[in-house]
Automatic annotation (TrEMBL):
InterPro entries: ClpP/crotonase-like_dom_sf, Enoyl-CoA_hydra/iso, Enoyl-CoA_hydratase-like. GO terms for molecular function: catalytic activity. GO terms for biological process: fatty acid beta-oxidation. This is (3,5-dihydroxycyclohex-3-enyl)acetyl-CoA dehydratase subunit B. SUPFAM superfamilies: ClpP/crotonase. It holds the Pfam family ECH_1. CDD domains: crotonase-like. NCBIfam families: EnCoAhydt_DpgB.
Length: 240
């Protein structure tokens, strides 16, 4: 039986799309909802921000629950799809963040947490869940910090998450902070955001000589974009 479909809502209105992950209830339902959110964002012709909310209710089951490896594969593909959207992606974390919260945080561009947020790490029977969340942790906070979380961690407060770089903003008013982020980031959403995101992600695993080609290609793309937007603007010189 197919999981109940979780509604994707307009944010702004008209500025972006939103998903309340707490409504999903199961990994299967959340995977379907994330894919639905991504499909809606991909269909938009204008710059879009995507907001994923979670942590408004206390987690009631251990992550990831009774599932098979196919379910895990579908989930990893969905989070990767979210991570690679042209849309600007925003995570909004409430007080009680368990289950997929860390996956969703690490797959988004801008992360907002409530001042009283507690991030419950995905630990099953005493062991950290070994999905791609582990890979993202190492890339984003470094091996030493990731080791502490994966081998010895249990919970992370909002202030600790901010210090680690897991969240970008700790806010007293989540709705106001999310709206401000949608307005700010929605303007830069699109293929150009994806290019810069990719350059950042590749920088942790590539040496200069391997990276320079991608950066020069990105610079050439940017010069062409600027030239197309303002062909008569003085001060932009060509070169060979």
């Amino acid at each position: 039986m197919q999981p109940a479909r979780v509604p994707i809502v307009d944010v702004g209105p008209g500025l972006g799309l939103g998903l309340d992950a707490d409504q999903c209830g199961s990994l299967e339902a959340l995977t379907a909802a994330v894919n639905d959110l991504c499909a809606r964002a991909e269909d938009r012709r204008t710059p879009t921000a995507v907001v994923v909310r979670f942590g408004s209710v206390e987690p009631t089951t251990s992550w990831p629950g009774r599932i098979g490896i196919r379910d895990v594969t579908r989930w990893e593909r969905a989070t990767r799809r979210l991570e690679r959207l042209h849309a600007a992606t925003i995570a909004v974390a409430g007080p009680s963040c368990g289950g997929p919260a860390l996956d969703l945080l690490l797959a988004t561009d801008y992360r907002i947490a409530a001042a009283d947020s507690t991030l419950i790490l995905p630990v099953v029977d005493g062991h950290f869940w070994p999905g791609m969340v582990t890979h993202r942790l190492v890339r984003q906070v470094g091996l030493a910090q990731a080791r502490r979380l994966v081998l010895w961690g249990n919970t992370v407060t909002a202030d600790q998450a901010s210090a680690l770089g897991l969240v970008d903003e700790v806010a007293a008013d989540l709705d106001a902070a999310a709206h401000a982020a949608v307005v700010m980031l929605g303007r830069i959403a699109g293929p150009e955001l994806s290019v810069r995101r990719q350059l950042l992600n590749e920088a942790t695993s590539s040496v200069y000589d391997d990276a320079i080609g991608a950066h020069l290609a990105a610079c050439d793309r940017e010069l062409r974009r600027i030239g197309a937007a303002a062909p008569d603007r003085p001060g932009v010189a060509g070169g060979s």
